[in-house]
Design brief:
heterodimer; A: 170 residues; alpha+beta; OB fold (Dihydrolipoamide Acetyltransferase, E2P); 5-stranded mixed β-sheet; 3 helices; 22% helix; globular; B: 746 residues; alpha/beta; Four Helix Bundle (Hemerythrin (Met), subunit A); Heat Shock Protein 90; 5 domains; 6-stranded mixed β-sheet; 24 helices; 48% helix
């Protein structure tokens, strides 16, 4: 008696799972974060790790946009402040800020963000092409825009940001 | 000297294969059209190196082919030739020929087994060099018989004697031939006593060892922590409660120390496994000296000292090229022909010394000759003519800066190109190899007519370096020990203000002082908490870290010395390596990351800041005087400071580095005043003063002695030999000097 019930339950479950798999729209993973009061996102495959707590060490002679270096399990990684590149006002350090470890454009580095918002899987179709009203300096860096929690989010091109940054340092 | 040539041949093969890969890479980059000057340079250098090292082993065929290849690349480099696909094919063929020759060598392991050079190929290269590209006859057999013939033993692997199918472009013969199996080891190797281990495995072991050393530093920190807890506990809960902890802390301390001793030994032993004696580089080099000298019609005796000193294998590998270049330069440019030497009153036989000595955890390698010295005037002129510096700048350069010119890429003073050197390829390679690859320092001493010494100061190993940790504004910073001269505490009153900047006198030498915090421009939000602590420390005097880069010194003022230890230096992330100030990062016991500062960059920054200050100063003293002053002092820093002071007041200053040099310059020129130090090599200041007084033109000119000798009898002696003024460095300040000078000149 009980066995039958178990089988039934299992088969129901299986069907239920199949239903979910059948919804077949290409999804993208996005890491959404805030700089000041604006929302931005990177593609998930570009972000290796999110560090909530990390001691950043000052490196003399580096530009202001380079906050310092961190020790990630024995590897030395830099921490970049993206504010200047995006023409945003410098924000002061706060307890909510995190570091995203990203790789792209031939380099890898931490990126300081003011606040982590969420890591989500969204259908590809929810991302719109960047609007023509975007300011000049943003146009090269933005891959697309979407709405998240009623807020506009700009999806940033990490490859481009990093390669621009590395060139700026050279 | 009996030399086992086989081991050098094996090393040559490894090295040459490396360079051949680079040649192939470079050519394919050029072919794809994306090649720039740097790519051409790389190809050029590789060809140059193959040429050089093959010459050492008398591999005539390889030398010849590489030389031709280098010629063509030289043409590409100076723009007299343009790269074209046809030229590319020719170059490829030359590289293939080289590769074939190296393979032959690897198979037979016998220097005499090499075939004669391929005349057709060499002729084509020579023509190409003259700008005439001719299509080579395209049957590979006819073109590269020298290459293919000895390869037959090898081609047993890839279908012997099969004619190359016609659809394979004939211009790329034999390129895809697989590399022959590595030489089967030296048959004479006593297998019972040695084991061959892959270098990469050894490296992994050493890297792991480095991590162990780093993590042990944290153990030491834990000891300090527990000491703190113990103190807290005994204060709060009384000594009885703390006694158990105390016992535990003592035991822990013993354990940590015992383990540290074991670990240090283990670490040393691991590093030793990679050590090789310097004789591997020195012995073939000595042989090369004799051969080069003979071919140039010079008589050279070569002395080799310190071949038993062992260096990390990685260092030995990278050391061979710079040493070859230095030797070649010494024989070609430095040492004179027997006739010239006899005319100059020297023995006909020149002497070239290769010496190595250990200095703490450093090894100093000197390559010195007793030749003509570097003609600095010619160096300046050449640099101006080549457009590397402007004429005014050329005239203003100090001797030391003029010496630095020879390290610029493309610089060479010899107007005739020989096949030894004189292409200006050597010195920039030397500098790059020593500074970047070997983490060392180059020092050049040269005296016209007496010879030149290149000193290479190198760490014994690259895996671990001795690092000094200091604190500034509450932040730690590291310095690698090769640049640290000394650390000393001086009372604040020892500081002098000279030409708008601070300096102290350390053993008869002015050393400029710069607060490290000022040079590093530490952001304000990082150093807020320590201002008061700083001030209280000032009462103890200034803590000065004297950095030495070549002959130049600078004292950076720091707040505290934190630690001095062998540490594993980790590189910065790739994109940050262009930051000049920081050469790497170390991890401390507290798991902090500390930037290791690059002393040459600090000196450069300080110099730039100083030039600006002097300019401002000079602008404020607009009174122009046209007096010419000769400053004689053996310390570079002192000379520079006195020069700054005097130039700020509008005097024209000429520098001389010892009494003899001073006398010579005084006789050649016509100076209105002479300032001289007392203690100097070759001729001291008293003697110089006395000698000048015998000369008609200096009988009544002011001569000022500036020295740190305060004794009354010294002053008397100074007056006796005819000095007009005697200034003690201790009470030296700039207006005093200028006032004295002004009074004497009227």
């Amino acid at each position: 008696m009980s066995e039958t019930t178990l089988d039934q339950v299992l088969s129901q479950r299986r069907e239920a799972r199949q239903d979910i798999v059948n919804v077949d729209e290409p999804a993208v993973k996005l890491v959404i974060f805030a700089l000041g009061d604006q929302y931005f996102a990177f593609h998930g495959e570009r972000i290796r790790e999110i560090l909530a707590q990390a001691d950043v060490f000052f490196v003399p002679g580096s530009p202001a946009s380079l906050e310092g270096v961190i020790n990630v399990r024995g590897d030395i990684e830099s921490v970049i402040r993206p504010h200047e590149m995006l023409h945003l006002p410098e924000s002061t350090a706060s307890r909510t800020s995190s570091i995203l470890l990203g790789h792209g454009g031939g380099m890898s580095s931490g990126i300081r963000v003011d606040r982590m918002v969420d890591v989500v899987d969204l259908p590809q179709s929810s991302i719109q092409p960047p609007p023509a009203t975007l300011p000049e300096h943003m146009r090269a860096l933005v891959l697309g825009v979407l709405k998240f929690q009623e807020q506009p989010v700009a999806v940033l091109d990490l490859d481009k940001m990093f390669s621009d940054y590395a060139r700026g340092l050279g | 000297m009996a030399i086992d040539i086989k081991k050098f041949v094996i090393r040559f093969i490894e090295e040459a294969r490396d360079h051949i890969n680079r040649l192939n890479d470079g050519l394919s980059t050029l072919e794809s059209g994306s090649g720039d000057a740097e790519v051409i340079n790389t190809i050029f250098r590789s060809a140059h190196t193959i040429k050089g090292s093959s010459r050492m082993l008398k591999l005539v065929t390889i030398t010849e082919t590489a030389h031709k290849l280098e010629d063509v690349m030289g043409g590409l480099r100076d723009g007299s030739l343009q790269f074209s696909p046809t030229l590319g094919q020719l170059l490829y063929r030359a590289v293939d020929a080289l590769s074939g020759l190296v393979d032959t060598l690897a198979e037979n392991n016998d220097v005499t087994a090499l075939p004669a050079p391929d005349d057709i190929l060499c002729a084509a290269l020579t023509q190409a060099c003259a700008g005439q590209l001719s299509q080579l006859p395209s049957t590979p057999d006819a073109v590269t018989p020298a290459v293919n013939e000895p390869n037959q033993a090898n081609s047993a692997v890839d279908k012997p004697n099969q004619p190359i199918p016609p659809h394979i472009p004939a211009i790329l013969p034999a390129q895809t031939k697989p590399a022959p199996p590595p030489p089967l080891g030296e048959p004479k190797l006593k297998t019972a006593e040695t084991v061959r281990v892959r270098l990469s495995k050894l490296d992994e072991l050493i890297k792991l060892m480095g991590e162990v050393v780093s993590s042990h530093a944290r153990m030491r920190q834990r000891l300090l922590d527990i000491g703190g807890i113990e103190r807290d506990l005994s204060e709060n809960a009384g000594p009885d409660a703390a006694s158990h902890l105390h016992q535990f802390a003592q035991l822990l301390k013993d354990d940590v120390q015992a383990q540290e001793a074991l670990m240090d030994e283990l670490h040393d032993k691991t590093l030793l496994m990679r050590m090789l004696p310097l004789s591997i580089v020195f012995e073939p080099a000595a042989r090369m000296v004799r051969e080069l000298a003979r071919s140039l019609g010079k008589q050279v005796e070569c002395a080799v000292i310190g071949t038993e000193i062992e260096l990390d294998r990685q260092m030995i590998d990278k050391l061979a090229d710079p040493i070859i270049h230095l030797i070649r330069n010494a024989i070609d440019h430095g040492l004179e022909t027997p006739e010239t030497r006899l005319a100059a009153g020297k023995p006909a036989q020149g002497k070239l010394t290769l010496s190595a000595r250990q200095d703490g955890s450093w090894v100093v390698i000197d390559v010195s000759d007793d030749g003509g010295g570097i003609p600095l005037a010619a160096v300046r002129e050449k640099a101006v003519k080549k457009g590397m510096i402007s004429a005014e700048k050329g005239a203003a350069l100090s001797d030391q800066e003029a010496i630095d010119l020879i390290f610029l890429p493309g610089f060479s003073t010899n107007s005739i190109i020989t096949d030894m050197s004189g292409r200006g390829v050597g010195m920039d390679v030397v500098k790059q190899a020593i500074l970047d690859d070997l983490q060392g320092v180059v020092n050049v001493e040269t005296r016209l007519g007496a010879g030149t010494t290149f000193s290479l100061r190198l760490p014994l190993s690259l895996a671990v370096m001795r690092v000094l940790l200091v604190e500034v504004d509450g932040l730690p910073f590291g310095f690698t020990a090769q640049y640290v001269g000394e650390l000393l505490r001086l009372p604040s009153s020892a500081m002098l203000t000279v030409a708008e900047r601070n300096a102290v006198i350390i053993r008869n030498e002015f050393v400029p002082v710069v607060p490290l915090s000022e040079l590093l421009r530490i952001p304000a939000h990082l150093n807020s908490a320590v201002d008061s602590a700083n001030r209280s420390k000032n009462d103890l005097g200034m803590l000065l870290l004297v950095l030495r880069v070549r002959n130049e010194k600078i004292a950076v003022q720091v707040d505290e010395l934190l630690d001095e230890r062998d540490m594993v230096i980790k590189p910065l992330p790739e994109h940050m390596r262009r930051l000049p100030l920081v050469s790497g990062v170390v991890t401390t016991g507290k798991n902090e990351l500390v930037s290791v500062l690059h002393a040459p960059a600090l000196l450069e920054m300080a110099r730039r800041a100083r030039t600006q200050a002097v300019r401002v100063e000079a602008a404020s003293h607009t009174e122009e005087s046209h007096y010419r002053v000769l400053v004689v002092d053996d310390s570079l820093n002192t000379r520079e400071i006195e020069k700054d002071v005097l130039e700020a007041y509008g005097y024209h200053v000429t520098l001389a580095e010892d009494g003899l040099d001073g006398l010579r310059k005084a006789m050649d020129g016509d100076f209105d005043a002479v300032l001289t130090d007392v203690e100097m090599p070759n001729m001291d200041g008293f003697t110089l003063t006395a000698r000048l007084r015998q000369e008609e033109k200096y009988r009544s000119k002011p001569i000022i002695i500036i020295t740190s000798r305060e004794k009354e009898e010294d002053k008397r002696r100074g007056v006796q030999v005819g000095a007009d003024a005697y200034i003690v460095k201790g009470d030296f300040d700039q207006s005093g000097l200028v006032d004295t000078l002004r009074a004497l000149l009227g």
